[in-house]
Protein: Ribonuclease R
Organism: Mangrovivirga halotolerans
Amino acid sequence: MSRKRKGKSNKRSKKKRTKDNIEFYKNKILQLLNSNSGKAFTEKQIARKTGADNKKARAMVVHALVDLELDEKIRETGKGYYTSIFEGELLTGKVDFVNPRFGFIVVEGEEDDIKVSSRDMGQALDGDEVEVQVFKEGVDGRNPEGRVVQIIKRSRMEFVGRLDMGDRFAFVIPDNKRMHTDIFVHKGKLKGAQNNDKVIVRIISWPEDEKSPIGEVVNILGKAGDNTAEMHSIMAEFGLPFEFEDKIVEAADKIPGEITKDEIAKRRDFRDTTTFTIDPADAKDFDDALSFIDLGDGMYEIGVHIADVSHYVTPDSILDKEAFSRATSVYLVDRTIPMLPERLSNDLCSLRPNEDRLTFSATFKMNAEGDVKEKWFGRGIIHSDKRFAYEDAQELIEGKEGEFAHEVRTLNNIAKELKQKRYNKGAINFETVEVKFKLDEEGKPLGVIPKVRKDAHKMIEEFMLLANKSVAEKVYHKKKGNDKLTFVYRTHDNPDPDRLETFSKFAGRFGHKLNLNSDNIAKAMNSLMDDIEGKPEQNILESLAIRTMAKAIYTTEPKGHFGLAFDHYTHFTSPIRRYPDVMVHRLLQRYLDDNESAEKGLYENRCRHSSEMERRATEAERASIKYKQVEYMSDHIGEDFEGIVSGVTDWGVYIEIIDTACEGMIRVSDLEDDYYEFDEKNMRLIGQKNKRIITLGDKMQVKVVRTDLDKRNIDLELVNND
């Protein structure tokens, strides 16, 4: 009897195991087909991919396929091929193609980006607007996964790169790091370009079965390595104009330079007030000046005078449309791409000494402690008494006697009070290390020099901040009925808590602490900034701290500025080089004249365009700096340097060289002492055998082994394995 029960039990157990195995294979098959939605597999392929490696297991696969088809979860397409019925969610987003192996689709309104492997990108390129099918939901902090099913709109069809000629055909190797395929060019489409030329190539087709798109050369920029050709390549890569069209220059040249008595009568006259400019020694456009009156009894009237660009550039004129299109001046290593033609930027709107100039001005009656008692805003006319270079003003601050020494020192003392008030309120002290290059006549870098910001720079900055803040507050508090007036604000959102947590851990690797439990994060951040000042890791930590912060943008929404600790802030002080400042001047005058509020939608669109062009200009400036850094390090191949680990990925370790602030990479494949695994959570590499850990903040002795000017890369290797 007991044996009989045992036999029944074995049968039930065997039946249960069989059922479990079928369920196991059903889940495996469903996972395989769903994650390859749109693709079909044979029974034999499915068996192999699900690990069915014996006769019994393959029978389970057949059984599972029948069940899934009956359950209408899969379907047979004919000829023994099976595919998933699951379509996956379809979303529209923009491609962020981070490296040759994978990219992300950024979908507006979605919290997580969708990860897409390069094989599932189809022919989508970085920046393209695409339709993406999600086939795997994100779990445990991982991104959802998907594949591109349709390209809705190409972000660009023209690319800049170096021409590599073969015997029968040619390829253009793009400069853009996010363009991960070369472009094939038939010899009849070269337009006279030669091997190693820098060219602009336009994609004309991309056959489905071809790895590379087919293009044609549309412009030849010069030989690779030539300074002008390389700078033009960067300008073309980021869609920046090479020069002004003749009609724009002609329109600027036609503007009369005479200031009429009628115009002077409309303005406040500052020509008899002590006024001077302080700018870089090589500056050609002076768009701001300070005036100074000692009122007695410890009170001063300080004027911030800004070039009145909006007087000369009228709404919807040809000059206005060009300025809006460019939105900003761009400062590459060896040249400036101006927003306005030279007639305006270097002449009519430049506050040159000993010449009458039209301004939009803000004056402040204030005491030595920086307390503002009275403000005035309006159009003026000035006559600058002197032009200082920053170095000249700094000498006066440090005690040298000279013309306007008292005025400059007094202004500097007040500026320090203003700065302290900002910090007391919660402003963050970011002093990022910037570099400049000593170039020869051909544009070749002879040295990399860190820029030094002294009191003279900070003094001008504080008074510009005061003017910008005060203008924003003036408009914000001036209502028309019950409605807020439409205005252009410069806003900076609070930092994301998750990014702060990551940054805190990063700083901790250098032995620094960021107190995230503090009631005042800005104060905690300032404490950290003070702690790292002058230390080798200063540049890395400051750069990462800035990346941790939200990006400042232009908007009509009257939000605050976290980094500056201002409730309201705008850009008023640089209309020669920033279009938002031109808009601010026009709106401020509109409201000083007590006119109706401007159309919000129109100005919001202009704000978005200005923010986008600012981002593009910043990327171009960084690209030119990176190029010169790589060019400089090309003369130091084989030399050793001390560096700090600034980034860790599964493909390489990024090292910032302390002396030059140049960043290079040690490829993981070049770490020959062990096999290293990437610990993504802790941003580190761990050796399998020796358990060596390479992590952020580690100091390393490295050698420059190669440079790639096309990709602006510096390859490094460890000097030793200590």
The chain has a mean pLDDT of 89. Residues 600-634 form the longest helix (35 residues).
